[in-house]
Amino acid sequence: MVLFDAAVPVHYGFIFLSGDEDQPDLIDARAGQRNGLCGANAAGVLSMVTGLHTGRVPFVVEWHDTEPVLGDEWEDVVEVPFQPAQPDLFLSSFQHFFPVRLPTVTAVRARYCATAMDAARKADTVLAEQATIDRYLLALWPAAPAPDAIVRLTSEAAQSWHHVAQTRRRRPAAVEPPPVEEAVETYDNVAAWGGRPPSERLRGLGGNVRGVARNHRDLLDVFESWDADVQRDAARWLARRAFEVAGLDRLDWARAALDALDRGLPLPTPFTSPQDVFKLVRPGGKKIGVVEVSAGAATPARPIHRPSFAVPAIFSAADPDPLQALVDTFRHAEATFNEQSAELLTELRQRYR
Fold it and tell me: Which of 74, 104, 223, 260 shows the smallest number of beta carbons within 10 Å?
């Protein structure tokens, strides 16, 4: 039974299957597993990676009554145990959500299949008018829980992610706190917020707030303490710095957008559409402004295309909520700076003491 069959837009190369919008950290979701392509550490969530960074990937979800036959067309295949919390789930990728309804709620075996991951990773981005490269299948069937497994390994991309999973330690198991009269955050929730329960204001934010909390908890509290005018000014400054380090500020059409952002005006063409901007920063799919960096000892060096990380910063900086704008834009700017992120933090502290 086919539950889903469509091209899914991806950004940053990830897809989740879950019952809510609260997604786990991409590395934590697979730490300690044998396989790194499909993380199953978080209860009720499957965290899957793609070879493609930005673009569209054909994605199929199937339900089977028994274990299906594995086709020869799949180059990389892994399996994990999965216990959905409810029948109504959705595939999520960045800001896109697609409903997936299971015929029943039971313990299942999830088989994640991929092909052409290396070719997609090399291409990095697929524009709207270009043909897709990698494709994926998620097959589900009722089965008792069993350890995750690498069924088939072909690509270097899959090998890299397997290495990440096998060399990262899982966080300690959550310890249930003793009951108290007032409701308190569980260990998991506190850990997800960088070790401290969030304020109601922070809890109400979406986007990248938890990612910032995990890595910069004190800075997140500082962001919240600023008044709205300072939050807005900082978000605009971060977007400009992301564009500068990506080399986009040298382009007339990008400078015009930054100027409109500073003046509080609507973003001009081509920034009325993210897809139109990506066509300009990646004309014909050609990699412009690619910087080779090392992602750490556990993973090999790979190309980082800074403009692709910088473009979302200007859209997030225009968010109507100044705190949401600041949090999300900081996250995009930090990703754009990448191995130079310490410099961004130093500049931020010096500018907004």
Answer: 104
Q: Which amino acid is at 326?
A: L
Claim to verify: residue 288 and residue 344 sit in the same structural domain: yes
Tell me the DSSP string of 90-158.
EEEETTEEEEEE-SS-S-EEEEEEEE-HHHHHHH-B--TTSPP--EEEEEEEE------EEEE---HHH
| Contacting residues for 337 by C-beta, under 8 A, at least 6 apart | 241, 242, 245, 343, 344
Clarify whether residues 162 and 196 are in a common domain.
no
CA 200 to chain centre: 24
In a domain, 179, yes or no: no
Domain with 83 in it: 2-167
Burial of residue 227 (CB within 10 Å: 0-12, 13-18, 19+) is exposed
Q: Answer yes or no: are the C-beta atoms of 53 and 281 closer than 8 Å.
A: no
User: pLDDT by residue (tens digit) across 69-114?
Assistant: 999 999 999 999 999 989 999 998 866 889 999 999 899 999 999 9
pLDDT digit string (tens) for 222-232? Answer: 999 999 999 99
In a domain, 264, yes or no: yes
Listed in order, strand segments (DSSP E) in 206-295 are 290-293
pTM: 0.53
In this structure, what token pair is assigned to residue 274? 């993210």
Domain count along the chain: 2
Beta strand pairing status for 135-142 and 54-63? parallel
